[in-house]
TrEMBL record:
Protein name per UniProt: AAA domain-containing protein
InterPro entries linked to this entry: P-loop_NTPase (IPR027417)
Organism of derivation: Acidianus manzaensis
Length: 207
């Protein structure tokens, strides 16, 4: 998993690749905690928002019998980047100092490049395919089911989305799942925080 950070807090540039096991070490105030919190954001930028965007997105995807229109999805993301980035940055500001975000601050993965200081996001759509199914009863569409999101660049691993709430709900869920990068096989453990109480008790022990 690609994880790149530029100009956020004490971090000028960190270009990392999380594969099997990764250990990050460094002196105090070098940015280890900032990296761990940003990594949490990268795994799920919408961890406080689990349904649909509010205010609603401008424009909706049309689900019919034709193949999914990826270009239309990218257009909706571009037209609503202020709404999308507002949600993401509100989560980021809950984890790190807002003054650490500068005009040239960036957060980059295989899926996107976020220019946090400019409220801009570029989503990579190369080879992106979305499979869906429309369920009808008596000729009336009653649900849209997103079956799978795939790309040669990354694995989304979406759970099926079944919506009777409206197509804005489905569009919101597609965008949220497209930007998430969590993997159920992975775990991130900030060992310095876990080990600190034990190490302090040993250091302060009266021999």
């Amino acid at each position: 998993m690609k994880f790149e950070v530029k100009n956020i807090g004490p971090i000028k540039h960190a270009d990392l690749n999380f594969d099997d096991k990764v250990v990050i070490i460094g002196p105090n105030s070098s940015g280890k905690t900032v990296l761990s919190r940003l990594f949490y954001v990268v795994t799920d930028p919408f961890f406080n928002f689990h349904f649909e965007f509010d205010p609603p997105l401008k424009g909706e995807l049309i689900f019919g019998k034709d193949p999914f229109d990826v270009k239309k999805l990218m257009k909706i993301i571009k037209e609503n980047k202020d709404i999308i980035m507002n949600k993401i940055k509100s989560n980021i500001y809950g984890l790190i100092n807002s003054s650490w975000i500068q005009e040239n601050s960036e957060l980059i993965t295989e899926r996107y490049k976020m220019k946090l200081g400019l409220d801009d996001i570029e989503v990579y759509d190369k080879d992106l395919k979305i499979e869906f199914e429309c369920r009808e009863e008596n000729g009336i569409k009653e649900a849209v089911i997103i079956l799978e999101i795939t790309s040669k660049a990354f694995d989304v691993g979406i759970y099926p989305v079944n919506s009777v709430e409206g197509e804005n709900f489905v569009t919101s869920n597609i965008i949220m799942d497209l930007l998430r990068t969590y993997d159920n096989r992975s775990a991130f453990i900030p060992t310095e925080r876990i080990g600190a109480p034990l190490l302090l008790s040993i250091a302060n022990e009266d021999f």
